[in-house]
Amino acid sequence: MRKIFVSTGLAITTLAFSACAAQTPLVQLTQSGSGVRLRYEIDAPDQRDGSARQITDGTEIALLRDGDPEAFTIDVPFEARKAMYPIVADVGDQAWFVYAPAVLPECLGASVIDIRTDRGVTRTACRNGSYVVIPRTDEPLTDTLSAKNSPIAQAIGSASASTLQSLERRLGSPSAVSRFIGVTVTPNAPSGIVAHVDRSGTVLFEVRPAFEAALNEDVLRTQVRPLLRHELFHRWNMSETAASANLPVWVYEGAAEYVGGLMSLEEKDFSPVEFNWLLGARLNRCLEAVGDGGLEKIGRGRVEDYDCGAIASWLLDLDLRRHGADHYEFWRALIGRSASTTGKGYDWPAMEAVFEASGWNAPTWRLFVFGGKVEALAEAMNAAGARVTYEGAAEDYRKALLQPLLAANCTSRSYGYFDDPSGVTLDVDTRCPTLPSQARIASVAGFDVRSASLQAYEAARNACEQQDQIEVVANDARIALKCARFEAPKASFQVLDSGVAPQ
């Protein structure tokens, strides 16, 4: 008999079970108000005290007695999470994701577990470190599961097959066999839309209802499909074959982020101008956080892992294209090499071995990763085939204008924006009470924020030195916003040509 601690990141409880149980463990899963109740029927005679529980961060997950000495239950609130992963997620039509490390630790000593829902009992394989997927009985794991008639699930499902096919052409078959994608629409999503992929290649999207309600083609092409491509790339670089523990997160997250944008460029969701602007914004955010000390020496953070990581992958792509190769070919070689090395994930030596075996030189990538003056980086990028300038650019004045203005008027913790034909559109999960829903800002202080952002910045700064409000035009309406404190942008990069756009 042994005991296992169930850790959700919010609470810890102890499960006791026999490691050599004769029968397949049965877990009954039922929705109960604001969460899910899991009833365990396993050989657990040592479990006598039903009060074992720990309360952390205001959330309680309690072990409950129900009169049966060989059964006990755990109530899991829907908002309970292990890091970014929900513990249990309802994806509609009696289909569930169950995060195994949290509520099925070590799979209760079994490789197969019976899950009972309202639709009956489903026998499912349990793998440590992964989601257990409980779909409808006899349904193959090849479709998108979600609530019926969900617009966001339909959009994700319609784009997933072509994305997988495109990635398979470039990278070969993924080592993870699952093609399952689940979509749950829930107010508990950490932001408008987030996604996760587990070690077996199973993907879960979580979407807030307001995000789904605001779907349009611009949201799909600039947010949903790039995120889908990011997550599906993880089926290659972070599922069965994955990074070793000592490899920085920016290597694999940045690669997925770059592929999400690059595939969106290749599929014409992004125009070359939009892709160039995105790279420039990422590069400037990264250098503001990192300086010229090199990416390899910094710690973790969203800017470092995603923005800096994506730029590193772009620069690697530029270097490899001079050899007739590209970013995809590098990852195909790295994953193939790691898959052939039993029990070992890819690491720095594996990456260097791929460079050496292929005869690839990556000077621009190395300059960015290991450090160098930004002026030298600009020269290296131009030599590698991109076209960049290192100076104060119009896009930087737009950032210097909009970010303080949004910070002064929005209530969400984060805010973003993207270009569309009508102006600069705020992300759908950005909440600004004084602006209309899904606001499209066309002008500030009488100047177009896309074509005349320097003039708009100067007019706004001058106006706010004299008054408390400033006029913007959003969704064809004139609106007064609270003034902000504006600071001129520092010299920075403008990407005029990424050097990787399809010809």
Topology record:
Blueprint: E1 2-7, E2 12-17, E3 26-32, E4 35-41, E5 53-56, E6 59-65, E7 71-77, E8 81-82, E9 85-86, E10 88-90, E11 96-99, H1 100-103, E12 112-117, E13 120-125, E14 131-134, E15 144-145, H2 151-171, E16 181-185, E17 193-197, E18 203-207, H3 209-213, H4 217-237, H5 249-266, H6 272-290, H7 302-321, H8 327-339, H9 348-358, H10 363-370, H11 374-383, E19 387-391, H12 394-409, E20 417-420, E21 423-426, E22 440-444, E23 447-448, H13 453-464, E24 469-474, E25 477-482, E26 492-497
Parallel strand pairs: 3-12, 15-16, 16-18
Antiparallel strand pairs: 1-2, 3-4, 4-7, 5-6, 6-7, 8-9, 10-11, 11-14, 12-13, 17-18, 19-26, 20-21, 21-22, 22-23, 22-24, 24-25
Helix pairs in contact: 2-4, 4-5, 5-7, 6-7, 7-10, 8-9, 10-11, 12-13
Report on the structure:
This protein has 503 residues and is of the alpha+beta class. The chain contains 13 helices and 26 strands. The chain has a 7-stranded mixed sheet with strand order 5-6-7-4-3-12-13, with no helix packed on it. Helix 2 links the parallel strand 15 (144-145) and strand 16. Helix 2 (151-171) packs across helix 4. The longest helix is centred in the N-terminal third of the chain and has 21 residues, at 151-171. The radius of gyration is 25 Å and the shape is globular. The model is unreliable at 1-14, 16-22 and 44-66 (pLDDT under 50).
Number of helices: 13
The strand line-up of the biggest sheet is: 5-6-7-4-3-12-13
Main sheet makeup:
7 strands, mixed
**What does the oligomeric state look like here?**
single chain
Number of DSSP strand runs: 26
* Beta-strand residue fraction: 25-35%
Poorly predicted segments: 1-14, 16-22, 44-66
Distance between the termini: 64 Å
Portion of residues within helices: 25-40%
What Rg do the Cα atoms give? 25 Å
| Secondary structure category | alpha+beta
Shape summary: globular
The overall average pLDDT, rounded, is 81
